[in-house]
Write a structure and sequence with these properties.
Layout (H helix, E strand, L loop, with lengths): L1 H16 L5 E4 L2 E4 H16 L5 H8 L17 H25 L4 H11 L8 H24 L3 H14 L2 H7 L6 H12 L1
Antiparallel strand pairs: 1-2
Pfam family, one: DUF4202
Protein name: Glutamyl-tRNA synthetase
C-alpha cells in the first residue's frame, strides 16, 4: 500500500531523474536537472502541505518524470504545439509513475490517484491537485523565473506571471511572496499583480 511503499517508489523515480543528461549547478556540484527539480518540488511540498499524503508525495516527485526524453522541439514551435507537447507529457509521466507505483505494491486505486494528480485532474476542486499546482508554480518562481525572464519581453513575462498567479491558491500566493528574488523580478511581479 502507498503508506508503506511510497519511499520505494520515490527512490525508483529519483533513479530515473538521475539519468537526466541536463545538468545544473547546486552548491557547486553538478546535479541532473530533473533530480534537482524533483527535490525542489518536495521541498516546496513540505512548506505548502507538511502533512501531505504518500500519494501526493509520489505525484509531486514524479511531476516531470523522464521529461527530458521528449524534447520541446519534437512538436511544432507554436502555441498549439506547446499545448500538445504538455498534454502528451502529462499523460506519459502519469502512466510511467503509475507503473512504478504498481511495481511498489500500491493498489490500483492508489496508482490511479497518483496518475490523476500528475495529469492535474480536477484542479481547483481537488485539494491535492491544487497543492501540486501551487508547488509547481512555486518552483517555477523560485528556480526558473529569473532565467525565463531573460529570454522574453516584459509583456509576455507579465502575462505568464498573471496566468501563474491565477492557478495558485491563497496559501500558494503567501508562499510565493516569501521567495527571495532580484529587484527586477519583484518589479515584474508587482506589475503583473497590479494589472
Amino acid at each position: 500500500m502507498a503508506a508503506a511503499n511510497y519511499e520505494a517508489a520515490i527512490s525508483l523515480i529519483d533513479e530515473a531523474h538521475a539519468q537526466d543528461p541536463n545538468i545544473t549547478i547546486v552548491d557547486g556540484k553538478d546535479v541532473p536537472y530533473e533530480l534537482h527539480y524533483a527535490q525542489q518540488m518536495s521541498r516546496y511540498l513540505d512548506l505548502r502541505a507538511p502533512d501531505a499524503s504518500p500519494i501526493l508525495k509520489v505525484a509531486i516527485r514524479a511531476q516531470h518524470f523522464r521529461r527530458w526524453e521528449i524534447k520541446r522541439d519534437s512538436y511544432p514551435m507554436t502555441k498549439a504545439g506547446y499545448l500538445n507537447w504538455r498534454s502528451f507529457l502529462k499523460k506519459r509521466q502519469a502512466d510511467l509513475a503509475s507503473a512504478i507505483c504498481l511495481g511498489c505494491n500500491f493498489t490500483t486505486e492508489e496508482a490511479d490517484e497518483v496518475a490523476k494528480l500528475i495529469r492535474k485532474e480536477d484542479l481547483k476542486k481537488n485539494e491535492e491537485t491544487q497543492i501540486l499546482e501551487d508547488v509547481a508554480c512555486l518552483v517555477f518562481l523560485d528556480d526558473q523565473f529569473e532565467a525565463f525572464e531573460k529570454g522574453h519581453d516584459e509583456k509576455k513575462i507579465i502575462d505568464i506571471l498573471r496566468k501563474t498567479w491565477g492557478k495558485m491558491s491563497d496559501r500558494g500566493h503567501e508562499l510565493a511572496l516569501q521567495i527571495p528574488m532580484s529587484d527586477t523580478s519583484k518589479e515584474l511581479i508587482g506589475k503583473a499583480l497590479a494589472g
